[in-house]
C-alpha cells in the first residue's frame, strides 16, 4: 500500500494563514504602545522587527518537536532560536546605534544629561548591550549543543517551507547549498560582539582591582590584543566542526529519500509522490 500527497513547490512562496497575516499589524501596535508607555524608540523598533525573526523561532520549535534525532534537534533548534534573535535585534540596533552616534558627534546638545536625545542614546546603548549579551548567550548554547552532539548544522530560510508543509525529511532544492549556511554570520556576529564587549568589561574590572600599575598595564594589553586573536583562532577551529556544507550533510535522510524516490529535492515535490510502505 502506498501513500500519496501533493506538496507546493519549495521555490514559490506559500500563502499565509489569517494568523500569520495578523502578526505584522499586531507587532506594529505593540511597538506603538511600547513607545507610548516607555518613550523608548529603540525598544519600539526592536518590537516592530520581531516579525523578521518569527519564522526562525517557529522553525526552531518545529525542529524540537519533529526531529527524531534528539541531539541534532537540540543543536538545530538552538541555532534557529539564535537566528531569530539575530534577525530581530541586529538591524534595528545597528540603525538606532548609528543614528545615536552621529547625533552624539555632531549635536551641540549631545552632552546635556537631561536632553531627550541623550536619554534616547542611553536607552539605545542599554538595550543594545542586553540584546548583544542575549545573542552571545544563545549562540554559546547552540555551539555547545552542536559540539556535544558532534553534528554540523545548516541554517537556511528554505527550511520554513518544510515546517509549513509538515514534511519530514525536510525539503531542499538541489541548489540550496549554493546560497550559503546562515549559521556562519550568526556565529561571526557573536564573536565580533565578544571582541567589542569582552575587552571593555575586563579592562573596566582591572581598573577597579588593586594591583601594581605595570601589572595592570600588562593585563590590559594582553586583553586588548589577545582577545581578538583568540576569537580568530576559535572561529577557524569552529568552522570545521559546526557548519555543514549542504543541507544534506545536516539531514542525511534527505539523501536516502532522494536515492529511493529519484526526485530532484526530496519526497515533497510539486506533484503527487508515491511513498513506499
Report on the structure:
There is one protein chain. By secondary structure, this protein is mainly alpha-helical. It has one domain (3-275). It contains ten helices and two strands, in the order βααααααααααβ. The chain is flat and about 60 Å long. The model is unreliable at 1-11, 256-261, 263-267 and 269-277 (pLDDT under 50).
Q: Main traits of this protein?
A:
single chain, flat, about 0% strand, about 280 residues, disordered C terminus, mainly alpha
**Hey, roughly how much beta strand do the residues contain?**
under 5%
Number of helices: 10
Oligomer: single chain
Rg, Å, rounded: 23 Å
Share of helical residues: 55-70%
Count of domain modules? 1
Topology readout:
Layout: E1 3-5, H1 18-38, H2 41-48, H3 51-66, H4 70-106, H5 116-149, H6 159-165, H7 183-207, H8 213-242, H9 247-250, H10 253-261, E2 273-275
Antiparallel strand pairs: 1-2
Short characterization:
By secondary structure, the chain is an all-alpha fold. It is built from ten helices and two strands, in the order E-H-H-H-H-H-H-H-H-H-H-E. It has one domain.
Amino acid at each position: 500500500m502506498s501513500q500519496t500527497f501533493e506538496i507546493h513547490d519549495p521555490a514559490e512562496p506559500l500563502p499565509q494563514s489569517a494568523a500569520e497575516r495578523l502578526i505584522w499589524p499586531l507587532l506594529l501596535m505593540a511597538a506603538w504602545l511600547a513607545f507610548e508607555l516607555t518613550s523608548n524608540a529603540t525598544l519600539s523598533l526592536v518590537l516592530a522587527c520581531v516579525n523578521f525573526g518569527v519564522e526562525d523561532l517557529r522553525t526552531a520549535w518545529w525542529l524540537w518537536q519533529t526531529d527524531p534525532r534528539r541531539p541534532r534537534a537540540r543543536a538545530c533548534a538552538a541555532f534557529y532560536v539564535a537566528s531569530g534573535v539575530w534577525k530581530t535585534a541586529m538591524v534595528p540596533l545597528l540603525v538606532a546605534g548609528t543614528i545615536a552616534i552621529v547625533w552624539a558627534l555632531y549635536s551641540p546638545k549631545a552632552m546635556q544629561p537631561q536632553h531627550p536625545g541623550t536619554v534616547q542614546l542611553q536607552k539605545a546603548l542599554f538595550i543594545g548591550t542586553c540584546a548583544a549579551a542575549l545573542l552571545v548567550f544563545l549562540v554559546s548554547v547552540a555551539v555547545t549543543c552542536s559540539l556535544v552532539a558532534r553534528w554540523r548544522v545548516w541554517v537556511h530560510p528554505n527550511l520554513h517551507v518544510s515546517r509549513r508543509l509538515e514534511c519530514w525529511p525536510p525539503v531542499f532544492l538541489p541548489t540550496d547549498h549554493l546560497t550559503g549556511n546562515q549559521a556562519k554570520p550568526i556565529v561571526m556576529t557573536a564573536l565580533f560582539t565578544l571582541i567589542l564587549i569582552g575587552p571593555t568589561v575586563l579592562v573596566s574590572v582591572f581598573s577597579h582591582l588593586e594591583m601594581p600599575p605595570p601589572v595592570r598595564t600588562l593585563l590590559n594589553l594582553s586583553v586588548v590584543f589577545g582577545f581578538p586573536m583568540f576569537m580568530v583562532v576559535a572561529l577557524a577551529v569552529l568552522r570545521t566542526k559546526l557548519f555543514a556544507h549542504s543541507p544534506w550533510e545536516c539531514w542525511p535522510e534527505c539523501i536516502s529519500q532522494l536515492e529511493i524516490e529519484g526526485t530532484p529535492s526530496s519526497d515533497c515535490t510539486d506533484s503527487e509522490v508515491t511513498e513506499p510502505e
